[in-house]
Design a protein that fits this description.
four-stranded antiparallel β-sheet; 46% helix; 7 strands; alpha+beta; 207 residues
Length: 207
């Protein structure tokens, strides 16, 4: 798969280990993130226009900084985002960071339903799990960018298993770590949602 074209196996064996998954369609829009940005930005604008004691300059600076950070992040992800698979392992290039997992460090490659699937075009996304239960999201490896997403994932797992010299076997201790980290993410997600609802209620009350 090459760059933004995203066609697996265009150069060489289609079942080869050398692959690159890049953007081939428009980005999957996160309406949830847009809603959060609108509430935060709207609250700042409201404070600027209604609070006589507010330092309007600082509110404007914060608002502009937030908008610019979101724009820069989107542009960088569009340009840098990609997943590269080679003989050494899997590398995930995100907007600001690059995460590489060698085949010896990879416990499993899994497709999971997108938690924000109701707000995004991508319903399935792919994660690489390590032995400690940590996971790394693979950019552009989802059913929005790949029409044959599940077939491509199954083929990658089969080829990489041959390359690793072992099949994908489940280990109870690692599965326990994965479940614990999943519970932690749900707890933090619930905390964030509660904070967002409180901020939204305060915004509506002030408005």
């Amino acid at each position: 798969m090459s760059g933004d074209n995203g066609d697996a196996g265009d150069n060489g064996d289609a079942r080869g280990i050398e692959r690159e998954y890049g953007r081939r369609r428009a980005l999957s829009i996160s309406w949830w993130q847009i809603t959060v940005d609108l509430v935060v930005g709207g609250n700042i604008v409201l404070q600027v226009t209604t609070n006589p004691y507010a330092s309007r300059l600082w509110y404007v600076i914060v608002l502009v900084a937030l908008v610019l950070a979101r724009v820069v992040q989107t542009v960088l992800y569009r340009q840098r985002g990609r997943t590269i698979v080679n003989a050494q392992g899997i590398t995930a290039h995100e907007a600001l960071r690059t995460n590489t997992r060698t085949w010896q460090d990879i416990y499993d490659i899994r497709a999971e339903l997108n938690a924000n699937g109701r707000f995004e075009r991508a319903q399935w996304t792919t994660y690489v799990y390590a032995d400690d239960g940590r996971r790394t999201r693979l950019p552009y490896f989802d059913d929005w960018q790949l029409p044959d997403f599940h077939a491509e994932l199954a083929d990658l797992r089969a080829v990489s298993a041959l390359h690793r010299g072992m099949d994908w076997e489940l280990r109870p201790d690692t599965e326990d770590r994965i479940r614990r980290r999943a519970r932690d993410r749900k707890v933090w997600g619930a905390v964030f949602l509660a904070a967002f609802i409180a901020a939204l209620a305060a915004f509506v009350f002030l408005a």
